[in-house]
Amino acid sequence: MQTRNIRLSNKQKSFIRQWYEDFANGQASSSYLASEQVNALATLLRVPVQPVMDYINKKYINPSNYLPANSDFAPTSGRAHDPKRRPPFQPDYSLTEANQHLHSTTLSLVERYVQACQRRRAQNDGRRSVNDGPFRCTFGCGYRTKRAFDWRRHEETHEPQELWLCLVCSQKGEQNPFLVNRKDKFLKHAKDAHKDGWEPEVVLEMSRVDFRGTFDPQCPNCPTTSDTWDDRCRHILGHYEDEANDSSRKL
Ligand SMILES: [Zn+2]
Ligand SMILES: [Zn+2]
Ligand SMILES: [Zn+2]
Fold it and tell me: What are the TM regions of this chain, as residue ranges (predicted)?
């Protein structure tokens, strides 16, 4: 194949190394790298996928007995879909313990961000003008809404579950690279701050932090505990929907 002969420049190699060391190291300890991420990386560097994959394989994944891959991103050794790869949620895990796999720079940015989110829960300044609906914030800030989607998104402003740390900012050596827990806000940042030919969706894909959020597994309304954030949200929404049905029946 022609693409095999393409050589990466030193600049491209250093870009790959920096991305790999900041973003992929934790995941790659299981010798698995998402092919979408490598595709996105190749798109950013405007080179074919294969030389990028070859370089990562040679440099990090299998330095000693690396065999060039002909078709797919080879060295998964069947572990890519191993459900044991991610430890199950442990309620007593601290954020730091749960995210030891992150690069130390990333981890300290993440800790700072999440702590700031969690501090918000104490605020209840009563300034909200539109604050109505069956779905109430469980963190005590007084927010209410009529839409389940907005409720969950609001809950995640107190307890983030997904994070994006801007790869382009990081590569530029920004002291405070853009970090956010909302996809829409990240895309806006990528569009506004990096107009120079970066595809926002590609930057998004490359900037996703392999973050494990924490939360209180205990339902605030009943003795139920939940193993995942999804289950927790579904369960609490169930309470609110029951309440709404009860009150409409009384009318
Ligand atoms: Zn709230
Ligand atoms: Zn950025
Ligand atoms: Zn409950």
Answer: none
Distance 109 CA to ligand 1 centre (A): 22
| Complex confidence, ipTM | 0.93
Tokens of 248: 């409409």
Residue 112 placed within a domain: yes
Res 22 pLDDT > 80: no
- How does residue 211 score in pLDDT terms, banded at 50, 70 and 90? very high
Q: What is the dihedral of CA 234, 237, 238, 244, to 10 degrees?
A: -160
β-bridge mates for residue 136, sequence order? 144
Ligand 2 mean position, distance from CA 240 (Å): 38
Q: Is the pLDDT of residue 63 over 70?
A: no
- Of 75, 107, 126, the last residue of a domain is 75
Closest-lying ligand to the alpha carbon of 190?
Answer: 2
Q: Greater confidence, 6 or 160?
A: 160
Q: Distance (Å, rounded) from C-alpha 145 to C-alpha 135?
A: 5
32, part of any domain: yes
pLDDT at 33 over 70: no
Q: What is the DSSP letter of 42?
A: H
Over 90: is that where the pLDDT of 204 sits? yes
32 and 153 together in one domain: no
Dihedral (CA of 68, 204, 111, 235) sign: negative
Residues 187 and 120 in one domain: yes
Q: Give the ligand with the smallest distance to the CA of 118.
A: 1
